[in-house]
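Deliverable D5.2: sample structural annotation.
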Amino acid sequence: MVGGSASAAGTTFTLDLSQNAAFSLLGYDCGGINEQSYATGFDPTSGYPTGDVYLSTTCSGSGRGGHSTTHTVWASVTWDFTSAVVTDALLTGAPTVDPTFSAYDANQNQVYNAGGRAYLTYGPGFAPAPRITAISATEGPTAGGTTVTITGTGLTLVDHVYFGSVEGTISSITGDTSIVAVSPVSSAGTVYVTVHSPGGTSAAASNLQFTFVAPPTLTGLSPASGGINGGTYVTITGTNLSTVTMVKFGDTPAGFIAGGDTSITAISPGDGNPDTVAVSVVTVGGTTPATPADVFTYGNNSCTGSCTSSVTCARVTGTVSGTMKLSRCTPASKTNRLATAVALGGSTLTWSTSGQTTVGSLSSSSPGQGACRLHSTELDISGVVTGGTSTYTATGDVVSASLCESRTGKLSLVTGTQYSL
């Protein structure tokens, strides 16, 4: 509604344009802009006063005998019931105006012309409905608590603010043009922000919508471990992740690549020591709660690669007394150094305190294949068991071990289903 009761009759406003608005429409301001306004009635949709405004300015020519030039335009204008401009637009030609025009609306509000100016006078008991032009925040958590500055006109007597059908809290009214409110607890979704005063309720508009964002959840990490130096690309799965603003490994912020609502990718920061930390995701809707699914382990190694979730740095598969394969992920720039380190290390991998395996050959597969991610290279090492004093020598025993590279380049066992230190 455009207005209601609660104001004294006879309040009068001049309907015109500000100098800034006039300059924007005219395009010139040579020492001042002359303005004449003429009321034309009330808009049939909004009910607001309407009129036409004539603008002119005269610019003097430069140099001796310079000629003056006068620039003029007509504009169509709509004002609200506090005389604030709602819309203005240039007219292609001069309209027909009535200098003595007068009209009343259903609330007995009057618009009229006198002396080259348009005026608005309130009818008996009329108070304008509030009008919102902007809100400072457009999203917040379903838990509420978001501070929103509401800008508009006719806000002095506002007594309620609504986010959809749910009432928010008015924190302060800082004048006729500004209110500070706090969003309420609400279900997820997008709603209109409106305010109410004795004069009525503000209109809903597409630029006055607020989205309540549900809190995020974290359901998995892949991989769930990495080297103490960081750099592991970790896929985080969950729900309501699209508005992510921060990812943390423990208390340390991590770089991340925003994805969809159910998945994002983070890059583990360096930890410096073997450790287990909780990964958390911060979104507009809140922070993921702690669950067993958020645990990330920094291994006791200097690995820099990124492999599958069951592998710390590398995986050995095959059978004892048979051919086996080592798939090792490492940055492509370190491939040659790793190959040399293995060869210089005597071509051996230590599985247990006594058993050894001789490496037969070493080759690199294409970057980004298998367990390795982009910018990493998978190194395949084929070899056979040579006996020795290994406790486990039975043909057919399955080897599934995780290894990592030491600072000297030596590959040593970390964990294994058949072999362990």
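Annotation notes: The longest helix spans residues 335-344. The chain has four domains: 3-127, 129-213, 217-298, 314-416.
The annotation will be released with the project's public dataset once the embargo ends.
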